[in-house]
Design goal:
Elements lengths: L4 H13 L5 H12 L7 E5 L5 H6 L5 E6 L2 H14 L4 E5 L2 H4 L6 E7 L8 H10 L1 E12 L1 H4 L4 H9 L11 H11 L2 E7 L6 E7 L2
Parallel strand pairs: 1-2, 1-4, 2-3, 4-5
Antiparallel strand pairs: 5-7, 6-7
Helix pairs in contact: 1-4, 6-9
Length: 207
């Protein structure tokens, strides 16, 4: 359940400077996510990167714990939180496996553009189920490259060999929803935006 922390540490500063690729799709993701949040919730975001999304969602929850495997990503996120004077977000370096050893349980867990980059997404989803309170929500958005962009496989394979790309799963919608159902989740909302890349937004509820 990890990404290469070395790869992401080296990519962090460039990643932080990179503009959002599709502002409209990002805004729609934030809007639909906010619709499921409330100011009495303790929320987790895993794979938070440099913290942009966590900081945007912080005003809508009681506390947001945001984690990433990259220490450099977390350093940048902590700097942003300080600059913006956001006090209800805690950034820390952690894998999903490490989160399971902590006592905290969450009302909602967020994961954006991350499940396709985790070594074993099926196991990750199962562990995330256990981190939620009963009735808690897993809110994710995942580029399902297997739907419309399978032609990129040879290019990404070459980039991986050159150390220019991380491990990537070419998931499709059925794969994604199947692993959620297998873990015990009930999928209560889906959406696809931007449709051009097959990025799948899903809200799944723990029993």
């Amino acid at each position: 359940m990890k990404r290469s922390d070395t790869f992401w540490d080296s990519a962090a500063d460039k990643y932080a400077r990179k503009p959002i690729g599709n502002e409209a799709a990002y805004a729609q993701t934030l809007d639909r996510t906010r619709a499921h949040l409330s100011n009495d919730q303790h929320v987790l975001e895993f794979g938070c990167g440099t913290g942009t999304t966590a900081l945007k969602l912080a005003p809508y929850v009681s506390h947001l714990s945001a984690t990433d495997i990259s220490g450099r990503m977390i350093e940048i996120a902590q700097g942003k939180a300080k600059e913006q004077a956001v006090e209800n977000v805690t950034f820390s370096k952690a894998t999903i496996d490490q989160l399971t050893s902590r006592p905290e349980r969450y009302h909602a867990i967020l994961g954006f553009n991350i499940l396709h980059l985790i070594d074993a997404p099926e196991k990750a989803v199962s562990l995330l189920y256990g981190l939620l309170h009963p009735g808690g929500l897993l809110i994710t958005k995942t580029p399902c490259l297997g739907e419309k962009m399978a032609y990129l496989k040879p290019l990404i394979w070459v980039m991986q060999k050159l150390g220019k790309a991380p491990k990537v799963h070419f998931l499709n919608y059925a794969d994604l929803e199947g692993m959620l159902h297998a873990a015990g989740f009930d999928v209560i909302e889906t959406g696809t935006y931007p449709a051009s890349t097959g990025s799948r937004f899903i809200v799944a509820k723990r029993a």
